[in-house]
Amino acid sequence: MTKQKGGALMSTFRFAESSGMPIYRQLENGIRKMILDGNLSAGDRLPSSRQLATDLGISRQTVKNVFEQLTIEGFLNSRRGSGTFVGDVAVMKLPPEMPRDRRRLNGYRVQPSKHARAIAATKATTRLGSVAAFRPGVPALDMFPRKAWSAAHSRVMRSGNDILFSYGPPGGLPELKRAIRLHVRDHRGIRCDEDQIVVTAGAQQAFVLIALTLIKSGSVVWCEDPGHIAVRDAMRLLCADVKHVPVDRHGFDLEYARQRHPRARLIFVTPSHQHPLGITMSLNRRLELLDSAQQHGCWIVEDDYDSEFRYAERALPAMQALDGSGHVLYVGSFSKSLFPALRIGYLISPPGLVDAFAAAQTLLSQNVSPLQQQVLASFMLDGSFNAHIRNMCTLYQSRRDLLVQGLRQHAGSFLDIEPCLAGMHLIGWLRDGTANELVAAEAIRSAGIDCLPLSIYCVEQVLRPGILFGFACVPDSEINAATRVVGAAMADALHGGRHNVPPRQH
Ligand SMILES: Cc1ncc(COP(=O)(O)O)c(C=O)c1O
């Protein structure tokens, strides 16, 4: 015997005209939901397609198509000559809609582990992706040579090499490795073979591969404090015992680290341009660090993220170039020298580790896109990369000077400003007696300027309050106006609203 419940219920069905969803899809979803909610049960008879089409004011063909689809899915079955019936579907009581408290679902607590929750609070994601003035770490995207890049892209597409459309060889394309070898030889004094290079998805992936391959849970890892947030939090995610080591005027404070936290397995440093303070590690400190790594059998990870940009003297060669014993893992990135969205970096390692790094990369995320690798290789080998770096060095120096001038003019009563000698940001040090840097940074941010307070890079260290201003990504013509906004916002926040700051438009 068949029940007739379906007809009555279906007549209550209404289309949501403003939803933008096609009506066939709404009808399908509506019938599915009635079945899953238990409002239609196995054996209930649905109205005929003709009847339902008339009731709902839609075409009969639409209703027939919906019945057909739901029959294929098993929600309905049709018996020739006798009608359409609800199939024998196990009814699942779904909540009427996603609960307001998204941490609870059907009585279960929906939340990551305690460990993952602590990591999710990382400051590495603070407004990541912003390109507003004066976002630290973002290169001059307005001046990127898009024509030369697209010419390289066209050359690669014309080459018709099918291999580039597949997974690519583990560790990277030979041509890109050759271009990288020449680049680090000429710019960083590094002598290496191409088979010591692993092409990675940015420096960040290189750091993760190093940890996955060389440490175990609880291994001691030394990180600079202040330092690169994404490194220390990735190491915590991988269950390292991260120890925070201060930085003095020679760079990483090795003596402090040795006394307080012996037995490190990995040491993360930014010797050519300490991140974020900008100190260059002295030659003696480099040699001491190398000696210590050799004696204790630990690895130095040399993060050389922005060494291309120096405005006074030439850069010291990389630490890797001084290392006779194979304890340095050198990490480079194209995020600053080209653009972060490229997601290409590289790891130069002692030969015995390369296969392990390449295998870990394949298991973790497969290789970096071979197509992009080939475009980059072509861009480097035809001289466009070197030309771009030369142009950016000149440009960044002039943007830095405009920033220094503007900040001194408009925010000089709050900030001490010294031009930096390298890199893409400088630190404005808050003058004595001025309020908290977080208040100042927040006020500037609310006025539409994206600078970052120095304290977000610190874990244990309490430094003089300062604010990081990135100058590379701001067109020359906008720098002065943006510094005026900074000055007015600081006056507002620190001197109680003497200025009215119009928000910047992006
Ligand atoms: C200290 C430091 N190292 C490395 C990088 C580059 O990371 P990636 O190549 O993953 O973009 C950055 C980027 O902000 C950085 O600040």
What is the total tally of β strands? Answer: 18
Poorly predicted sequence stretches spanning 5 or more consecutive residues: 498-506
Going across the major beta sheet, what is the strand order?
6-14-13-12-11-7-8
Provide the residue-averaged pLDDT.
91
Q: Would you state the CATH class of the largest domain?
A: Alpha Beta
Mind explaining what this structure looks like?
This protein is an alpha+beta fold and 506 residues long. It folds into three domains: 5-86, Arc Repressor Mutant, subunit A (Orthogonal Bundle); 153-382, Aspartate Aminotransferase, domain 2; 387-495, Alpha-Beta Complex (Aspartate Aminotransferase, domain 1), CATH 3.90.1150. It has 16 helices and 18 strands. The chain has helices at 5-10, 23-36, 49-56, 60-73, 114-120, 146-158, 174-188, 202-214, 229-237, 254-260, 283-296, 351-365, 370-381, 384-411, 437-446, 476-495; strands at residues 45-46, 76-79, 83-86, 104-105, 108-109, 197-200, 220-224, 241-245, 247-248, 251-252, 264-269, 299-303, 328-333, 345-348, 415-417, 425-430, 452-453, 466-470. The chain has a seven-stranded mixed β-sheet, sandwiched between helices. A hairpin with a 7-residue loop joins strand 15 and strand 16. The longest helix is centred in the last third of the chain and has 28 residues, at 384-411. The relative contact order is 0.11. Pyridoxal-5'-phosphate (PLP) binds next to helix 8.
